[in-house]
Design a protein that fits this description.
The protein is about 30% helix and about 30% strand. With about 170 residues, it is α+β, with helices and mostly antiparallel strands. Strands 2-3-4-1-5-8-7-6 form an 8-stranded mixed sheet. It is globular and about 40 Å long. About 20% of the residues are buried.
Length: about 170
Amino acid sequence: MENEEIVIDLLSQFERGKISRRNLIQGLVTGIAAASAVASVPAFAAAPAHKGFKAVAVNHISYGVADYGRTRDFYAELLGMRVSEDNGKQCALSFGDSFLIPRHTRQPDNKPFVDHIAYTIDNWNKDEVEAELRSRGFEPRKDTEDSFHIKDPDGFDLQISGKNMKAAP
């Protein structure tokens, strides 16, 4: 399976309740580590010219949960994630240059779901990013001064952001 298929499969399993949040995150981390290892192996054939953006990090993962407080406390206590922007309905859980945003689920059956994944790109320029997205047929939805949302080919909400988009301290 290609990396994108693995991520989509993991997210689908998570949304259907087939795997836990822990298994989802472990799968994503394992995939990132594997992709990094493959990237360090020299290529024998020239790769096609890259014409889009350069993703440099997973900025954050936003997802709905049944019990927001339990999720917040779990990640803060077990993994030492720093809690910020806690408004009683959602918060940011920071680790390294990334963060999670758990919030009360919007699903009628109270099931957890992945709302969106944000990727940080290199060389952020709001106007140039918006123009590039529009040139590719997307209708970018501005979220912050440093991000836009679009739908990926499978309908997932994808947020593209600059390096200045961070969880509040």
